[in-house]
Amino acid sequence: MNFSPRRAIPLISALSDAAVVYASFWLAFQLRFHYEPFTRVFPITKGVPPWHFYHDALQIVVPLWVLVFALFGNLYRKRFHDAADEFMAVAKGVILGTTLIIAATFLYRHYEYSRLVMAASFFFSIALLFLSRESWKLAAGFLFGKMISREKVFILGEGRGIETVVRQLGKEPHIQPRAFPSREVEAARSALGEGEAVREIFIAGNLLGNDRVQALLDEAEDRGIEIKILPDFLEMRMGEISVDDSLRIPILHLKPLSLHGLRYASKRFFDVSVSIIIVTVLFLPFLAVCLLIVLDSRGPVFFRQERVGFKEKRFFCLKFRTMRRDAEELLKKMDLPSFRGGPAFKMRDDPRITRVGRWLRRFSLDELPQIWNVLKGEMSLIGPRPQVLKEAEGNPDWARKRYRVLPGITGLWQVSGRADLEYEDMMRLDIYYLEEWSPGLDLKILLKTLPVILGGRGAY
Questions:
Q1: Which of 76, 177, 329, 346 is 20 to 30 A removed from 133 (C-alpha atoms)?
Q2: Least confident piece of the model among 202-206, 212-216, 261-265, 337-341
Q3: CA 385 to CA 153: how far, in whole Å?
Q4: In this model, does residue 236 exceed pLDDT 50?
């Protein structure tokens, strides 16, 4: 059997995770019982237990955790996670594994394990598993292509779905994607006939009626190559498709939006709770920013602008003022150009922005007053950005779905390129968010927001 990097990745990850989990518990044991600064704060009252009690338990715990990671954490896919997804998957697996251990300690009464060891191992496991997996990805990026040949994957067709597949596969260090437009089917078939070691073929669904494509697929099937079809209507229905076999035949089912009912209520509770915390913690910095705005230029501290929100209702979105008072009049007089396509106006080095405003925009601090819109129920912390009236009027019909959820202060496209994205890509990311919403996706966006803000990329 030929060596397959795809088979090696889950195996290496599982073995590495097992070693890291064991090391995490060992470090937690050393911290609890042998690290003097820690023991001074948390004195040892029942003596120092021998390590072998924990070692023996770990012979069951470690395989159990690896099994949990595989079944519920989705950690052993044949493809790599990006950093934020990796952290979420690791955290989910460790939480479930720790929950099982806590439940087991209530049932097993022959020996009482230290709760501080379990608590410390929880944090050690998340940190070390994440670091080891990111290190493995860096090592894999070096090994594949230099010391180990990469797997070839053919992608046939055009469209957004195909572009997404090419882009995502390009991030995999063990994969060498090769795209063929529909007019180059014969080139793909020739490459296949020359004996290239191809592992997978992705093909746009609208090409299945092509006789040349069918011939290529027949040849690929004879050689045992995996064939994956990307339906062309996924261009507009990202994330909404599931397979229904209740009629004993496979039927593609369009799911309703993910954000409604109890999920909406939980998201609203999160918004209000976190907003109150933010206002409490940042009250004095808010006052300092207000003072800087007043000292820098004439005009009000806040800028109120009518936006389109939930169910296309209009509301006044609040921001710190970053432009001159006469910014709207200057826009008409100066005929300033927008660098981004679509109805949304964006300009690099906009001359209407004040000195303090430029600094506020760079780090997105001008958006913070929208916490008030969140508390009023007009916005959410995370969601599609509220559009100004001119932008909303220029939306294509398929993008109107974005009004089915509360607009947000930050969102998926803000952590995926911000203003550097094309207008249509921004709309598609908004649609993807509302169709695929989950608490985990919100947490992922929050984790990505801070480094994006600090980097200042795409902020104008």
A1: 177
A2: 337-341
A3: 36
A4: no
Q: Which candidate, 29, 95, 106, 104, places its Cα nearest to that of 65?
A: 95
- Percentage above 90 pLDDT, the chain: 20
363: CB partners within 8 A, 6+ apart = 453, 454, 456, 459
| Cα 183 from chain centroid (whole Å) | 34
Is the Cβ–Cβ distance between 214 and 208 less than 8 Å?
yes
Q: Which CATH number does the domain 151-235 belong to among 3.90.226.10, 3.30.450.40, 3.40.50.2300, 3.10.105.10? A: 3.40.50.2300
Task: Find out whether 442 and 405 touch, Cβ atoms under 8 Å.
Answer: no
Structure tokens at 445: 């966006």
Q: Considering the chain, what is the average pLDDT of its residues?
A: 80
Q: Cα 32 to the chain's mean position, in Å?
A: 35
Cα four-point dihedral sign 164, 170, 175, 176:
positive
SS3 409: strand
Say if strands 408-410 and 380-382 run parallel, antiparallel, or are unpaired.
parallel
Indicate the DSSP class of residue 144: B
Domain range summary for the chain, segments of one domain joined by +: 5-143, 151-235, 262-455
**What's the pLDDT score for residue 248?**
57
What's the CA gap between 369 and 265, in Å, rounded? Answer: 23
> Could you tell me the two tokens for 343?
């109805």
Q: Which pLDDT score is estimated for 314?
A: 94
pTM above 0.70, yes or no: no
Mean pLDDT confidence for 212-225 = 81
More confident residue, 232 or 343: 232
Supply the angle between the helices 51-71 and 5-34 in degrees, to the nearest 10. Answer: 140
The CA distance from 179 to 157, in Å, is 8
